[in-house]
Design goal:
The complex is a heterodimer.
Chain A (H helix, E strand, L loop, with lengths): L12 E5 L3 H4 L1 H12 L3 E5 L5 H4 L3 E3 L6 H14 L5 H7 E2 L1 H8 L4 H8 L3 H13 L3 E5 L1 H4 L4 H15 L8 E4 L6 H6 L6 E2 L3 E2 L3 H11 L11 H9 L5 E5 L3 H4 L3 H10 L2 E6 L11 E4 L8 E4 L4 E5 L12 H11 L10 H11 L8 H4 L4 E2 L25 E2 L18 E6 L24 E4 L1 H6 L7 E5 L4 E8 L7 E5 L27 E7 L3
Parallel strand pairs in A: 1-2, 1-5, 2-3, 4-15, 5-6, 9-10, 10-11, 16-20, 17-19
Antiparallel strand pairs in A: 7-8, 12-13, 13-14, 16-21, 18-19, 18-21
Helix pairs in contact in A: 4-7, 4-8, 4-10, 7-8, 13-15
Chain B lengths: L1 H7 L7 E4 L2 E4 L6 H7 L23 E4 L6 E2 L10 E3 L3 H16 L16 H9 L23 E3 L9 H9 L5 E4 L6 E4 L15 H5 L5 E3 H4 L8 E7 L8 E7 L2 E7 L12 H5 L14 E3 L5 E3 L2 H19 L4 E5 L5 H15 L4 E3 L4
Parallel strand pairs in B: 1-5, 15-16
Antiparallel strand pairs in B: 1-2, 3-4, 3-5, 6-9, 7-8, 10-11, 11-12, 13-14
Classes of the chains: A alpha/beta, B alpha+beta.
């Protein structure tokens, strides 16, 4: 997030798009609700009538995968109505004129023809956001899990740059990170393109520094993403893999492909808490200590660095992951794995990361620091981009994006849009919530279908249906509800016995290689069971 | 002339009052209760939660303000310059004790286990402080428990309810869910949800905020109470919730080696005391019976078998070394977790970069 969570209580206009916040980030949603209580207005764009939409002043029910069209239409209106923040644009941005020229072709009527939102509502949304003194954008995976995820994010950035809703209290571009430490995994350099602290591996200066620090030459060449790695494994071009704390087989798209890839490996080592579906394929499974048994550090969605602490002893012989990995490395003769404590590991990370340079184990314990903390004594950075942007020129760059269809679109054979996500009481593949009594609320997977579609497609509420796509089919029960619009159905990916990932994964964003998990054309038919 | 004008403007007047003989400055909008808290005067409250709008319902926080005939509720009275306030005069203490006797007379004498919730001891502590038994006032009682609502998370022992409305207000003001409501008035007062039904059938999301703000334990954490009989003391350990990326601060409650419950940290910077159903109640997986407790190694029979750490680590390292020797630096890949702490992800990326000199590393953020 560009802005801290505390800023969620301060916008005048909230624009929430592709975020089912009350279910996926419930506590952050309470802060938005407080903003609404004190007079803020909210625009919600989402294909489904999610709970946040019920609280919105303006709800934009766009068709799945058409965010770029909606956002181009809004940009067009902001320009047309003379609401561009000229002062901000001239002082802080680049390529603005070319961008404004670009958006003049994308009228709200054009946007309506693609995204299905009435042009008048697109205009209202644009006016509300642009006229606000403080407008803030919040988004989640509904924006990023598309083949055009980068374009979607870029389109949101364009809106913020046009209006100057960035770098100030109660504004910003605020992605809500989905997992407790997914931000931290990136911060720590578990990325093929970046060393710790988002320092590009292709920059020879960084490669040299890390090679020296690690006592081994590291190539200044980007690695491959997980998606490519699984592809290579499936083609017999990758032989060994270490998977830590991820049930890849259930959470990743295209399950059959994933299964084939992992089985093709000569050597698979899984570090986990449970014998997951993925662990079942491993040569070696190593038991890790769990949350509640482990001392360490998490970074949350607002870049706040915080300590987690052990409250109970490990189960059985479980060990912390840093220890397990160090033992393997040492056995391979790799130097630099003599840590005695998590503190030593974290402090080493801080010494090598520009954004953590001013942090250490003790400071993480105060939970008071948002990175970047570039040097000791620095107070941290709750709000990004107050004075400049992290580009060569220091200016925010407008990017001219265009609309593209999803990887697969509805057809006669697969006439229904399936979109996937989470529900409040479950989390991912239920390795945690499935062992914590949450079945009281949601005991099994269901396909949410609009009541009129239930009737039109010959389905019955509570009865079984088969959902087929170009890659496969799964069966689950139907739940009639009007959260889903007609022609669009929803389910989660939380239940291993309903492997929705046999359907998803037709396309990937070309830059991030994030899978298009939010759009999948399917056919829904009743089945007797 | 100039001097006169300046002196008469309200901004120039000092915001100072006198409380228990002490001069104290305050800021515009502060209540007498907030001022008293800064002075660490122990003004008792029951309906007060500093995250909620002042309510003025329990009247325990009454104080005397000179020049006013009756004591005033300090939680709803704005501080004004020149006020002379007494927070512990004999008169207000007598007043408080009588109020407390009325409150307590409605509640059965019972031990309230601290596992019930964050604020569950408030009434109990005031009973002890004022030596109140509840025997002096006898009469009708309000609030009836709902044993029929057998959800495994929130007990609704309204026999212990004192109608302070904290649960109603936290649900509305902090959560924005408006699931909890009040039926009836006076002795007929009953805290309830829509159609007088069960929580599961209402707008309740089971975030547990009502449980944590309840000052009597009438609303209680049923999961934590499973450990009521364990003899060990309750230990609280500050940590961060393991679910989404909001990073809510929590206190893990343990008894001996057992994790028994979760409390939201009221001073958590991301959550300000809030949690959701997962963070509040979905922790049992940590000590689940089916946790992996030993390393496993695949045998010649194709099955996974328990092994010692040495065997398993040797096997893991040998496989990675073999892949390196046979296929070079681009034959091995690692995926770090977005749920494990930094030290895990850092160690794994270093393992790849040092052992292979490549950047064949990713985390689970792409799917």
């Amino acid at each position: 997030m560009s802005n801290p969570l505390a800023d969620m209580e301060k916008p005048e206009v909230i624009f929430a798009i592709g975020t089912n916040m009350t279910e996926c980030h419930p506590v952050a949603a309470t802060r938005l609700k407080r903003a609404l209580r004190s007079g803020a207005k909210m625009i919600v764009a989402d294909p489904r009538r999610i709970p946040l939409a019920e609280a919105a002043d303006l709800y934009l029910p766009l068709r799945v995968g058409t965010d770029v069209a909606l956002l181009l239409g809004m940009a067009h209106v902001i320009d047309r109505e003379g609401l561009v923040n000229r002062e901000f644009m001239e002082a802080r941005t680049e390529e603005a004129e070319a961008f404004l020229e670009h958006v003049r072709q994308f009228t709200p009527e054009w946007a309506q023809s693609i995204c299905g939102v009435p042009a008048a509502d697109i205009e209202r949304a644009a006016l509300m956001y642009a006229r606000a003194e403080r407008g803030a954008i919040y988004y989640t995976l509904g924006i990023t899990e598309h083949i055009c995820g980068v374009d979607n994010v870029q389109s949101l950035c364009n809106l913020a740059l046009m209006t100057g809703h960035i770098g100030r209290e109660g504004t910003g571009i605020n992605p809500m990170r989905g997992q407790n430490n997914i931000q931290g995994a990136g911060d720590c350099g578990a990325l093929p393109n970046n060393f710790p602290g988002f320092q590009p591996v292709t920059d020879p200066a960084h490669a040299k520094r890390f090679s020296e620090a690690y006592g081994r030459e590291i190539e200044a060449v980007k690695g491959i993403t997980k998606v490519q790695a699984l592809d290579r494994a499936a083609h017999g071009e990758l032989w060994a893999m270490l998977i830590c704390g991820e049930n890849t087989l259930v959470s990743d798209p295209d399950r059959d492909h994933c299964d084939k890839a992992l089985r093709a490996l000569d050597h698979l080592v899984v570090i986990d808490l449970f014998r997951t579906e993925t662990a079942e394929l491993a040569d070696v499974v190593l038991p890790a200590t769990a949350w509640g048994e482990t001392d360490g550090v998490f970074t949350n969605t607002e870049r706040r660095v915080q300590r987690v602490r052990a409250a109970v002893p490990p189960m059985g012989q479980a060990k912390p992951e840093w220890w397990i990995v160090a033992q393997i490395a040492k056995r391979m003769g790799s130097p630099g794995f003599d840590w005695q404590s998590p503190q030593e590991v974290f402090d080493e990370l801080c010494s090598l990361s520009g954004i953590y340079k001013g942090l250490d184990w003790e400071k993480a314990g105060t939970a008071a620091y948002h990175w970047p903390v570039p040097e000791p004594g620095h107070p941290g950075t709750p709000r990004l981009h107050e004075h400049d942007f992290p580009t060569a020129s220091g200016r925010g760059k407008f990017v001219r994006v265009g609309f593209r269809d999803p990887a697969e679109v509805v057809s006669e054979r697969f006439p229904v849009w399936l979109t996937t996500g989470r529900r409040l009481q479950h989390y991912h593949t239920r390795t945690m919530t499935g062992r914590a009594g949450m079945h009281y609320f949601v005991p099994e997977e269901v396909l949410e279908v609009h009541p009129d579609d239930v009737a039109a497609w010959g389905l019955q509420d509570g009865q079984w249906c088969r959902v087929s796509g170009s890659k496969g089919a799964v069966e689950m029960k139907v739940q009639a509800n009007d959260r889903s619009p007609r022609g669009t159905v929803f389910c989660s990916f939380s239940f291993g016995d309903v492997p929705v990932n046999v359907l998803t994964g037709a396309g990937y964003d070309p830059i991030t290689e994030t899978a298009e998990l939010k759009v999948c054309p399917v056919r829904v038919e009743a089945v007797a069971r | 002339m100039t001097t006169h004008t300046t002196a008469s403007t309200p901004e120039a007047r000092e915001l100072v009052l006198t409380m228990d003989g002490q001069e104290v400055s305050f800021s515009v909008g502060e209540t007498l209760y907030q001022v008293s808290q800064r002075l660490r005067t122990e003004v008792p409250t029951l309906c007060y939660d500093d995250r909620l709008d002042p309510f003025g319902g329990c009247r325990l926080c009454v104080v005397e303000v000179e020049g006013q005939r009756n004591p005033v509720a300090s939680c709803t009275t704005q501080a004004l310059p020149g006020m002379v306030v007494h927070t512990r005069s004999e008169r207000v203490e007598r007043h408080r004790k009588t109020l407390l006797e009325l409150v307590v007379s409605e509640n059965p004498e019972a031990r309230i286990d601290p596992l019930r919730g964050h604020a569950s001891q408030e009434l109990h502590h005031l009973r002890e402080r004022y030596g109140v038994t509840g025997e002096r006032m006898q009469g009708r009682k309000s609030g009836h428990s709902r044993p029929d609502d057998d959800n495994p998370f929130i007990a609704r022992d309204y026999d212990q309810c004192i109608s302070c409305y904290r649960c109603v207000r936290v649900c509305a003001e902090r959560e924005g869910d408006y699931a909890i409501s009040v039926k009836g008035r006076g002795f007929a007062t009953q805290i309830t949800v829509e159609f007088d039904g069960h929580l599961r059938d209402s707008a309740c999301t089971f975030c547990g905020q009502c449980v944590q703000t309840c000052p009597t334990g009438a609303l209680a954490d049923r999961k934590a109470l499973r450990a009521e009989a364990r003899p060990e003391p309750i230990v609280a350990t500050r940590s961060i919730c393991p679910y989404c990326g909001v990073g809510c601060s929590v206190d893990l409650l343990s008894k001996g080696d057992r994790l028994v419950g979760i409390r939201p940290a009221m001073d958590g910077p991301a959550n300000l005391g809030a949690l959701c159903v997962k963070g509040q109640f979905a922790f049992d997986w940590v000590q689940s019976e089916d946790r992996l407790t030993t390393p496993l190694v695949r045998g010649k029979d194709g099955q996974l078998h328990p092994a010692t750490w040495d065997e398993a680590l040797d096997r893991a390292a040998a496989g990675f070394a073999k892949a390196r020797d046979e296929h070079g630096q681009h034959g091995t890949y690692a995926i770090a977790s977005g749920r494990a702490p930094h030290e895990s992800a850092y160690a794994i990326q270093k393992f790849i970069r040092v052992s292979y000199g490549s950047n064949y590393i990713d985390n689970c953020s792409r799917a």
